[in-house]
Structures are given as C-alpha cells and as structure tokens.
Amino acid sequence: MDEQQYHPDFPAVNSIAPKTTPSRLGVELRQHVERGGSLTDKRLPSSAPRSPLTAPKKYARPQRKPARATPKGTEEVPVTPAGKAGEGWRIRKQEQKASLEDGKWAPKKRVARSTMERIRFLAINMPDTFDIPRLSYEFKISFEAVRRILRSNFNPSPEVIQTQESKRLALRKEYWSATQEANQPKPPTLPQPVTIITQRPKPKS
Question: How far apart are the first and last CA of the chain?
C-alpha cells in the first residue's frame, strides 16, 4: 500500500490529511508517545507551523495594590441619632467633638429651662425607665447634653427666674398678636366703577 495513505506503526495517521508528509509526522508521533502522550489525544502534534495570529495569547494578570491601612483613630465614624443602633461610645465621642468649639461647650440646640426641669424630674423619679439614652431620644438632644443637665447643680435666683418668665411672656404675646393679624380675614374689595370716555369726531371745516 502507498506510504502516503497508510502508516503501519501508527494507524492514527490514516485520519490525517494526505498532504502532510508521513515520514516527518511519524517521527513527531513517535516522540509524542515517548514523552508519555497518547494517540487518542485530541491535540496531536502537527508538522504544520503554528501561525502567530492563531497562537494562544498569554495575558499577565494585573497586580492588585495592597490596601493601605488607616492609622488608628483617624477613621471617620458616622454619627447616628441618639437611641439608634451603633456603638454608644463612638456616637457620643463624635457628638461631643462636634459640640466643642475651641474647647468650650457650644451645643447647636438650646434647651429651655422648663425642659431641663422635666429631664431632672424624670431622671430622679423614674431612673429605671428614663435613663440617659432614653431621655436623649425622647427630648431629641445629644447624650452629652443630657449628662451635663443632670450633672449641673446650678439653680438661678428667683429674680432671674422672674425676669426670664416676663421676657418669655412678652415674646409669647408678640407672637400671638402677629399670628392673629396674619390670620385675620381681609375685607372684600369691591370692583371700582369703570368710566368710559368717548370722544366725538371733530366736524370738518
């Protein structure tokens, strides 16, 4: 039988195109088997040179930058409202830091004297129910503000209380008078009579 159509040692050569040189292909198949390869392998060695366009491309995996560790104490902790979920000491630390300006206590929200008295009354008479976090949540003020109110022993004199009460009543009366004037219905405006002036044409001389 023609050598180009049949190879006695390697029957798998019969399935390869006849244009391939059998002698060279036989050497490659022998080397492939000696290296431990199998004739039933789908990727048998070929005598045809591999085109650089069809060669498998190898892409280098980009290296990831290592995560930069932030120094301790520099991370920003989101401030959540009092009474919500979160670490209490972190929330109080951020609130206290925001309330202190140049080392002085300057809260954004002022608390009235009557509100302070109610906070003290609830803390003294019902300490189990109204603790500091509960008072902070109910009165919508910070934990630090409630703590300072309960710790403070300042009691104004009766003269100061009377002066403050008179100012409060004066402001309240002024507010009510302005509200009444704004809510008063305005008198209805009647339509004004419209006068139509007609000019007669001048006679021709």
Answer: 139
